Amino acid sequence: MIQYFNIIQALCRSALSNPNEAVIHQIIRLKESLKKDGYSKEAKSLLGLLSSSQGSSDMSPSKIQKSFITGAGEEISSKTSVPVDKETSTPLAEIIFVPDLPNDMPLFDPNIQLAIQSIVNEWANFDKLLEISATPASSCLIYGLPGTGKTHLAKWIAKQIGIPVVLARLEGLMSSFLGTTSRNIGNLFAFANRYKCVLLLDEFDAIAKLRNDPQEVGEVKRVVNTLLQSLDSRHEKGFTIGVTNHDSLLDPAIWRRFDIQIEIPKPSLEVMMFLLKKFVKPLEFSDTEIKFLTWCLEDSSGADAEMLSKWLKRAFVIEKEKNIVSVMKQFALLNSGRVNSNKRNMMLHKDEEFISMLLNDKAFSFKQKDIASLFGMTPSSLSKQLSKFKESEKI
What we know:
Radius of gyration: 29 Å
CATH topology of the largest domain: Rossmann fold
Number of domains: 3
Order of helices and strands: HHHHEHHEHEHEHEHEHHHHHHHH
Strand order of the largest sheet: 1-3-4-5-2-6
Structural class: alpha/beta
């Protein structure tokens, strides 16, 4: 039997990952039998496993569960080496320490903010939950369109939990060498399970594709299976967050591995206004101007709002007297993918058509005096210009 002790030891370690009194009792019996038969080294090894799991007399279910779900293990330091791809020596992940994580929660609609806050509240009330045999969610999938703040949100959640992030972009785990991708995934999860950390899997759809896709080769299916097994091994050993722009590509089995799934939509009009006010600082714009900028970016992302704000800062530093409408026309022309095509086409045509579109937009309810200020004219001049335009259309 002793020649198979490595296997026995591995089985004991696995059993102690979710121990109960029966498991502990049998491992103690095995330890005592080994010691009696003169295998003191092996007996001491099992004693070490029991001690690391807080000992048979100290293993109440709540203490064990708390230990594992918070990622009991070694502390990550600046000297900790991350695993690398053995073929290319490329790091499989990067470590982001708590002080470097964002302090501010991304701005979302109130219902989404409440849902996200509930995750944080679970961890803040860890001990109370354990008293009723409950534990916080240990995994979360964040999905939605690009530029909606998903990765920033994942990092902010990690900040609230208070442990470092192991950030892996799954695209970087993929290799052209047969079997290397699966090995990279296994090494990444082994590293994350060893340390106290939040494992953040960005670009999650790069690997987690539909296993029944007829165009995928067998290797990709094996990779997905490895990922599923690794996610299972991670359960209650820390917090795991997956981030994807393409949720439709995910295997249904992937979804089931996550306790929580959060869809992050594009910002509402109200949220877009707040984002623009935040991003344009230290520049100051009137409420009407912010409303106009929001109109221009309707159906765009938070990342688009940040890009526009940088554009505005450059434009108004170089040409301080520039009109906001002319600036937005340039932006629409040079950033065609960030502005609704119908609005962009109207902005680049006659001003009268542009003004009419603004006045007829019921969602924004622009008034003539507001639009006049945007175009740098008086309300009476605007009214006369629109009257002439309407008369010319009748002819």
